[in-house]
Amino acid sequence: VHNNKKCYCCSFEDYKLTTEWLLNQTSHRPKIAVICGSGLGLLAAAATDKQTFHYQDIPNFPVSTVAGHEGCLVFGTIGGKSCVFMQGHFHLYEGYSLCQVTFPVRVFRMMGVDTLVVTNASGGICPDFKVGDIMIIKDHINLPGFAGQHPLCGPNDERFGIRFPCMSDAYCKELRRLALDISVELGCEGFVREGVYCMVSGPNFETIAEARMLMVLGSDSVGMSTVPEVTVAKHCGLRVFGLSLITNKVSLDYSREEKVNHEEVLQISKMRAEVLQKVVTTLICRCSQDQSINTH
Ligand SMILES: O=P(O)(O)O[C@@H]1C[C@H](O)[C@@H](CO)O1
Ligand code: HPA
Predict the structure, then answer these.
(1) 100 exposed, middle or buried (CB, 10 Å; 0-12, 13-18, 19+)?
(2) pTM confidence score
């Protein structure tokens, strides 16, 4: 209860309880957290010394309700670095509050994580994008946020971050550059792009008029996740890197016959999961770990 008004946000004690529970259950002390989007749970496969928890067994954790989201938290080691992978993340359209959607991010922060890698599936709006392209997220548009569906609305807890955080540098420039270099080394630069991800709440895919509006707004791709997690991560001082897999082309034309569906999204994710895994794994191995988290 804040200011005599009932607050539906998670309390500091909720985050603390989950953090302490996890720290008691595992000897891993991750510095890097990876959120695996639709069909991308394989990103955890390269880790060694793995320890897996089902979301339903973790106190306060929401559970995954969408196909392609396994609902497991996997601790492991990559290139000597301790990591934690979320195989599946949470969405507004599942009925979760943005506090629940972003709950794991603050837990990771409290566990000592300093870098968050986000991945997702999205529809390509930029006419140059092809199905199967990997988009390094350069920036985002928080469309639900414009309408007040924002994870930082409500009383601000200064223990996590400041009231009015800066978002103009949400996606770390150095990590974006490193990822571009890695894509050249891996020979996949032909389908690696940079662009702006726009979040909508879903669950329906866009109408043609909506898609045209998103293009005018400057969106290169559209999806239903990630922005709340990135916003909360930035608020609590984490360094963020993001990859979005273009699983379909968004219809911008009334004469286009193809109809997008979730099965197609999962099929393309499966097709590209291995390349994405190589990029993420190499990035983890190569990224500097002298990152000092901003404390507020
Ligand atoms: O990786 P996410 O969960 O953002 O994947 C997108 C958005 C929906 O969850 C789903 C629609 O097919 O894919
Ligand atoms: O076309 C899309 N729109 C919104 N979300 C998505 N996630 C994958 N593809 C899409």
Answers:
(1) buried
(2) 0.94
Residue nearest to atom 11 of ligand 1 (CA): 262
Q: Catalytic residue at 244?
A: no
291 is a domain residue: no
- Give me 145's structure tokens: 């946020």
Quick check: is 94 catalytic? yes
Q: Is the CB of 240 under 6 A from ligand 1?
A: no
Q: Indicate which CATH number applies to the domain containing 87.
A: 3.40.50.1580
Residue 205 alpha carbon, nearest atom of ligand 2: 3
Ligand 1, atom 12, lies closest to the CA of 262
Q: Is any atom of ligand 1 closer than 6 Å to the C-beta of 242? A: no
Q: How far is CA 283 from CA 15, 182, 260, in A?
A: 28, 7, 31
- Write the pLDDT tens digit of every residue in 76-100: 999 999 999 999 999 999 999 999 9
Per-residue burial over 20-50, b if 16 or more Cβ lie within 10 Å, else e, is: ebbeeebebebbbbbbbbbbbbbbbebbeee
Residue 295 lies in a domain: no
Per-residue pLDDT of 233-277, as tens digits, reads: 999 999 999 999 999 999 999 988 888 889 899 889 899 999 999
Q: If you compute the radius of gyration of the chain from its CA atoms, what whole number of angstroms results?
A: 18
